[in-house]
Amino acid sequence: MTESSRTKPEIEFYEGPEPTDLVIIDIEEGTGAAATAGATVDVHYLGVDFESGEEFDSSWSRGQSINFPLASLIKGWQEGIPGMKVGGRRQLIAPPHLAYGPAGGGHRLSGRTLIFVIDLLGVS
């Protein structure tokens, strides 16, 4: 599937209690190169709050993917993206300690469990 044929994902809400560990769900397996822990990744993503279901960020809404070294991203992405292959779509559910830290941590999403759907477009 090419990037242009992809559409903004819909979140499949997680059944069960709010997880305390990272949850990784492959929605679609990629066939390209696999991301490694030290990689720079090109991704499209959607982020929503676990509790409210409200979207807080989306590269889709900005109309362009982002390109970042994995090491500069939240722990949930650092742990949840390696092994993912280009062309794949993966859902990550990151509890606060793997997202923006405990409540009161200074980030507007501190203390929140977050759901991301990530499309891996490229690795370098």
TrEMBL record:
<dbReference type="InterPro" id="IPR046357">
    <property type="entry name" value="PPIase_dom_sf"/>
</dbReference>
<protein>
    <recommendedName>
        <fullName>Peptidyl-prolyl cis-trans isomerase</fullName>
        <ecNumber>5.2.1.8</ecNumber>
    </recommendedName>
</protein>
<feature type="domain" description="PPIase FKBP-type">
    <location>
        <begin position="38"/>
        <end position="124"/>
    </location>
</feature>
<keyword id="KW-0697">Rotamase</keyword>
<dbReference type="GO" id="GO:0003755">
    <property type="term" value="F:peptidyl-prolyl cis-trans isomerase activity"/>
</dbReference>
<keyword id="KW-0413">Isomerase</keyword>
<dbReference type="InterPro" id="IPR001179">
    <property type="entry name" value="PPIase_FKBP_dom"/>
</dbReference>
<comment type="similarity">
    <text>Belongs to the FKBP-type PPIase family.</text>
</comment>
<dbReference type="Pfam" id="PF00254">
    <property type="entry name" value="FKBP_C"/>
</dbReference>
